[in-house]
Amino acid sequence: MQTLQQQLVSYAKYHRDRRNIATHFFGIPLIVFAVAWLLYIPIIQINTTIFTPALVTAVILSIYYLRLDFRLGALMSLLLALVYTGAKAVYLNWPLDHTWYYLGGVAVFFVGWVVQFVGHYYEGKKPAFVDDIMGLVTGPLFVVVEVLFLLGLCKSLEQTIIAQAGPYR
């Protein structure tokens, strides 16, 4: 398994244009939420816990992020819990037939990817996941780290990424 820095540097090489990064602040959260939405398929309920593929995915991703870096993993776990809670709320409060529920999730997923591809048009590079499927897992972490950089946090990590992936444009 690559280290946190290796994964972020590899992903950052596809994301140096500030406009592309800005589109990721919208596109990736939409995609992550849409995936949780689409995977919110109740399988079994034990006490008050409803087990869904979305829950299993969130737990697996949380464990992965925690193994990469405990503090960032804890933040990612919290964010995934919020996404899962949002998907659950949408599911439980959906006023229409569940066919429309899933079509809504597909629509959000589609919009998220359109935003992503607009950003990659600005970048002039293909998305990172085309060369490494792990880019789909690194993308949400990259967005969170970029927000932390904007807040003036994780300066050492930011400098490492810039030194290895190149400056922002």
From TrEMBL:
Q: Where are the transmembrane segments?
A: 21-40, 46-66, 73-94, 100-121, 133-153
Provide the Gene Ontology terms for cellular component. Answer: membrane
Transmembrane keyword on record: yes
Q: Which Pfam families match?
A: Mpo1-like
Name under which the protein is recorded: DUF962 domain-containing protein
Q: InterPro entries given for it?
A: Mpo1-like
One biological-process term from Gene Ontology?
sphingoid catabolic process
Name the source organism: Pseudoalteromonas amylolytica
- UniProt KW keywords: Membrane, Transmembrane, Transmembrane helix
Query: Does the keyword Transmembrane belong to this entry?
Result: yes
